[in-house]
Amino acid sequence: MLGIHVVYKLVSITFSLLAIWTSISIFNKGFLLTRYELNETNKCENPPKCWERKELPYNKVILLIIDALRYDFTTLSDKNATYLNKMPVFHDIALNKGCAKTKLFRFEADAPTTTMQRIKGMFTGGFPTFIDVSNNFASGEIMEDNVLDQLGGNITFMGDDTWVGLFPERFQRSFPFPSFDVKDLHTVDNGVLNHLFDEIPKQDWRLLIAHFLGVDHCGHRYGPLHPEMSLKLAQMDQMIRDVIHTMDNNTLLLVMGDHGKL
Question: How far is CA 205 from CA 62, 156, 200, 252, in A?
């Protein structure tokens, strides 16, 4: 007969293995989610399955994506952190235009917050998964239904080159810049600024996307409390003001971050 100590050890080992197996199963189901893609495109042929198209008061949309733009970067505060109050443009717009024409919203991004997953999530409406993180370095084309394909063309893009991997041949003009050197705060942003104000007056685009990376790279390299972050936020503030002065009254301006940063 087995001794009581041997039985106790066998029970302990069995229980431990069962606990490990259960933990791994829960982890796989909750953390390493499987993402299924539907490659069908909504053609709006059946009205009940299509959103209602309405006449919009704007002919064009400018979408400015400031990577890692935190909500507290955009608001005024009486605290003393160096990164605060460096982008008063949103407050100034609300005062000048009124709340009826300006809105400021806060959202929390689902992890993972790498660029490819955030773009994919925002423009397809799907949830990003951690299993997709490896694809951030070799982005494949988005084949499922998405906002850009629904627009049907007349799109100009400039900024993070991840976009051209996700949406090849979707842009009538594109100005991509390399994005993976997190020590480089200026190449992408300066590249966008070199083209942005030449593109805004043109009449052949419906959507203009400009994706700035400097704030995100500054956060990775220095953190939000470094003086470089204050300079980068001030640059973005001035850029937004210049865009407002350049665009016409038939254009809608959207400014957003793709995620925040600790």
Answer: 10, 6, 9, 13
pLDDT more than 70, % of the chain: 79
Using CA atoms, how far apart are residues 151 and 56, in angstroms rounded to an integer?
14
153: left (phi over 0), alpha (psi -120 to 50) or beta: left
Contact yes or no for 178/210 (Cβ under 8 A): no
Which pLDDT score is estimated for 197? 97
The confidence band for 134, taking pLDDT boundaries of 50, 70 and 90, is low
In CATH, the number for domain 48-256 is 3.40.720.10
Domain ranges of the chain: 1-31, 48-256
Rounded to whole angstroms, how far apart are CA atoms 128 and 110?
Answer: 7
